[in-house]
């Protein structure tokens, strides 16, 4: 088998029946033809016809015979084992690229530090480099599409970031087109919180939940809104942009240029800033030692300090959790979700953060909205953006 | 034709094709069989079959011949002219009952003052009385269903109000069952803001908008959320309950028992209370005169006083608009709607209120979310709850 970049349009399903069959095989794994027929409520002949065509298209392969259900044994089919999706997770301070199989299982995962503020060219060059490495290893031969997450608002239709506050130089940069032309396959670009929400929906804690919020607290703060199992993006694609919701009348100047934003108070960047101030002022010897050692502090340092009982760090987590909780209390009253999942780097603050957020939400939201509301930490953690990116593009590619 | 209450199950469409045809006839009016065939993308034979069946069911009738499109003239069909829906709008201080034809045009509309706090029995007795009057006039013979709005949270599935703050005595009262048993036809019960949103979607300012917010500011404050042309109700039916979102750390005690709620600051009841306080303190002679005359003040009095330039009334509107605006700014950032419609009694404050709300939202929400965002007053005004009630039940009854 030749191990070189293949530039050709991958095969796609031709009708809604084929699309449904492919998604069943993606989500449930190998199935007998009989089981698939039951699941899609099509006649035996029709299912056989569509499956045969999917085999011809190279999307499905046979996988032996099923146990007998009384009559002739039905043959098992599965997604072609060569089928691959790429997921790209562009964060504020790193780039992740991974390749998955058709069932969205991660096969290889590469991660490099990178400052997104360096602008689109160096970042996308790194992305393509990492893809090249995956291809060189043979893991990414039969790529059917790429799902890309970026930490800012995105025009989903056009595949471009739109005035992203923490991504200077990226405004309207043709991310989808650039990657699509380099790799010769379908590409979708979305806000990272939306993608992480899809990850939790596919393989994380929100698997059985149709309407939920995924709150990402990383360097920035964002929210993925899932309505009836699909990401709700709003009129211009900015739905869920809660980082710039106003939580106070003044406060620190935000990356967006205004004051009073949630993100300016409790993003990872804000937390690092407040921790450094505390370290320099001598209020926390633990944080001061860490600052002297590393030259800078991060949200992760605050998490470690809080876990070991440092009172300044504990206060930072408590105060941030209160602010986040107030915003979420409003959103819970408004949206009445079935679950709230908290993820992203600052979710590393863990149960201390969760306890604060829960306290405020359960106290300030309507009882009817909080009666059965789980507020939980992301199950996938750092992998949410990868699984979600693969899910995003596979939903697209496996549609008719 | 006998003019008495008929208790029988009305006919319903038998499949999705019939349902689509009926909704087209409801929304677009009489159409030729040829036009309907084009619209639903079914074969001529299949459309003829389904329409013939709808005629047999008494839901559709012939209405002459269309202009020729080149060949034989196609016959025109329309919804049966006897088809009727009832809409019931239970407000905090009044009850509206109306009957519409199949196209949701209001034929007769009765309104009686009634305090919802008197509890379900007297209020629903009045509702059934008013329905009786409509029936006695012959306007409501062939009723296919009833859509009911109430000013509080509703479990839509069960058709009961759930812990509604301004409706003491109504918690879990079987509203749907009571009306359904009395009238012998399908009944749906929903929160009034959801129903008013449906009204604007059907025949008001949001006709061409798929994702929007309808903000009702009456005695209480609520919000109808429309996603892809359908009301989004959330996990337990309380989505859009923004009246009890916290806007300050203390403030007046709310009907829900907590402090800091938006509604306790700027519902119609709060506005009337603040106006009476101002009148009694001698700060506004205009409001004092009106109070002496009427014995009590309402939000409508504030509107009149503000329109004639009374500075206290103008301040009340301005301050209320600011508070409402701040909440809406957050919701606009979160939900990125295509439109915000403001309705309900306090919308009578009109353009002064609108100007305040717009100012705050455009200043405090993300530019990407406000770029093309119309913030407008309800077009249907007091009729939004009636048209919406009819739309709610017709969507249900005309479904397969």
CATH fold-level assignment of the largest domain in chain A = Nucleotidyltransferase, domain 5
Task: Report the strand count of chain A.
Answer: 15
Runs of chain A in which pLDDT lies below 50 for 5 or more consecutive residues are 1-7
Protein structure class of chain A: alpha/beta
Radius of gyration of chain A: 23 Å
**CATH homologous superfamily heading of the largest domain in chain A:** ATPase, nucleotide binding domain
Shape descriptor of chain A: globular
Domain unit count of chain A:
3
Helix content estimate of chain A: 40-55%
* Oligomeric organization of the protein chains: homodimer
* Second-tier CATH architecture of the largest domain in chain A: 2-Layer Sandwich
Give the H and E element order of chain A: HEHHEEEEEHEEEHEHEEEHHHHHEHHEH
- Average pLDDT score of chain A: 90
Largest interface: A-B, 41 and 41 residues
Sheet with most strands of chain A: 5 strands, mixed
In percent terms, what proportion of residues of chain A is strand? 15-25%
Please report the distance between the alpha carbons of the first and last residues of chain A. 29 Å
Q: What is the number of helices of chain A?
A: 14
InterPro entries (chains A, B): ATPase_NBD (IPR043129), ROK (IPR000600), ROK_cs (IPR049874), WH-like_DNA-bd_sf (IPR036388), WH_DNA-bd_sf (IPR036390)
Family (chains A, B): Belongs to the ROK (NagC/XylR) family.
Protein name (chains A, B): ROK family protein
Organism (chains A, B): Vallicoccus soli
In short:
Chain A is α/β, with parallel strands linked by helices and 400 residues long. Chain A has helices at 16-28, 33-40, 44-56, 120-136, 175-183, 192-203, 262-266, 268-280, 285-294, 299-307, 311-335, 351-364, 367-370, 384-397; strands at 31-32, 60-65, 75-79, 83-90, 94-101, 106-113, 142-150, 154-155, 160-161, 187-191, 212-217, 221-227, 230-231, 340-343, 375-377. Chain A has three domains: 16-79, Arc Repressor Mutant, subunit A, CATH 1.10.10.10; 83-194, 2-Layer Sandwich (Nucleotidyltransferase, domain 5); 205-378, 2-Layer Sandwich (Nucleotidyltransferase, domain 5).
């Amino acid at each position: 088998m030749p191990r070189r970049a293949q530039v050709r349009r991958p095969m796609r399903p031709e009708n809604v029946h084929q699309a449904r069959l492919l998604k069943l095989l993606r989500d449930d794994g190998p199935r007998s033809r009989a089981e698939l027929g039951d699941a899609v409520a099509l006649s035996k002949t029709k299912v056989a016809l569509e499956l045969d065509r999917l085999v011809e298209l190279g999307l499905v392969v046979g996988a032996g015979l099923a146990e007998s259900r009384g009559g002739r044994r039905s043959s098992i089919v599965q997604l072609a084992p060569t089928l691959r999706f790429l997921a790209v997770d562009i964060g504020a301070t790193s780039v992740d690229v991974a390749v998955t199989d058709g069932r969205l299982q991660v096969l290889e995962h590469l991660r490099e530090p990178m400052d997104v503020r360096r602008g689109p060219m160096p970042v996308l060059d790194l992305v393509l480099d990492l893809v090249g490495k995956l291809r060189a290893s043979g893991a990414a031969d039969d790529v059917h599409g790429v799902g890309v997450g970026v930490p800012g608002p995105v025009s989903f239709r056009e595949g471009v970031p739109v005035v992203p506050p923490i991504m200077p130089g990226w405004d309207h940069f043709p991310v989808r087109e650039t990657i699509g032309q380099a790799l010769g396959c379908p590409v979708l670009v979305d806000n990272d919180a939306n993608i992480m929400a899809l990850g939790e929906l596919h393989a994380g804690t929100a698997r059985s939940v149709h309407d939920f919020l995924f709150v990402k607290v990383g360097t920035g703060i964002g929210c993925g809104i899932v309505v009836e199992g699909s990401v709700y993006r709003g009129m211009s694609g900015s739905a869920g942009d809660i980082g710039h919701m106003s939580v106070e009348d003044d406060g620190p100047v935000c990356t967006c240029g205004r004051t009073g934003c949630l993100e300016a108070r409790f993003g990872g960047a804000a937390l690092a800033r407040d921790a450094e101030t505390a370290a320099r002022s001598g209020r926390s010897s633990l944080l001061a030692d860490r600052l002297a050692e590393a030259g800078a502090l991060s949200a992760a340092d605050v998490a470690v300090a809080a876990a070991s009982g440092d009172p300044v760090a504990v206060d930072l987590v408590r105060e941030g959790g209160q602010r986040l909780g107030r915003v979420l209390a409003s959103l819970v009253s408004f949206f009445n979700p079935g679950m709230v999942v908290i993820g992203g780097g600052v979710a590393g603050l863990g149960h201390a953060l969760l306890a604060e957020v829960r306290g405020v939400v359960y106290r300030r939201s309507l009882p009817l909205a909080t009666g059965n509301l789980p507020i939980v930490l992301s199950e996938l953690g750092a992998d949410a953006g990868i699984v979600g990116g693969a899910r995003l593009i596979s939903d697209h590619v496996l549609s008719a």
